[in-house]
Amino acid sequence: MKKSIVLSLLVLFLSMPLLSNAFTAEHPGCGGDCRDCHSLDKKEAEGIIKKGLPKASVSEVKMALVPGLWQIDFDVEGKHGALFLDFSKKHLLVVQQIIPVDAMGKQAEPRKIDFSKLPLKEALLMGPKQAKKKVAVFTDPDCPFCQKLHLEIKQVLAKRHDVAFYIFLRPLTMHGQDAYKKAQAIVCSKSTAMLDDAFTGKPVPAPGCAGTQVEKNNALADSLELRGTPALIREDGMVNPGFLAADKLSAWIDGK
Q: End-to-end alpha-carbon separation of the chain, Å?
């Protein structure tokens, strides 16, 4: 008896997608793009997750791989996470990741970015301009791991003259207005000395200009799906999200 009930439930579960497709084919509604009927913007998503995570900031809202769910990517206290919200906006699913069955047992494709599309002229240069190897760095003056990485970058530059680092100041919203003001002041001055001061905890003067470069850097990072800081991009497009010690950083630059 129990086996027959389980079998019936299994058949019903497996037939649900077919029944759903048949229904939506005959009736107007969300038979195509679910976003025609359902919507969720970053502000609304942030209002929902802040009930449990007051310090969280939403970086992206998108359709999850599983139909009927939104994926909400967020940052809180230097860490990145994701939650899943059903279309009724009444239930949050706390899971680490949704994995396609076809992807199981396979090595993930390495993440790559088109390096040629990065506006290097807008970045702060550390190292020789004519260096053969280039690395883009998205960093935040109030990020502890960014501060550590900055010291490691200086160690690499002390030993190598074939590498240049292009620094994009990208203050995370969780660090507040202080980080933004520091980033804006550094961008205005285009001074590596001021960058050093910011990362070593020394006072940084108020911004000497009013521009939008910091906002552009943040928008660029978001478009490249660089959620946290630091983030490094090699000239071949390979991405390293996070801190690397000087020896490992040097080896990574060489593709090792």
A: 60
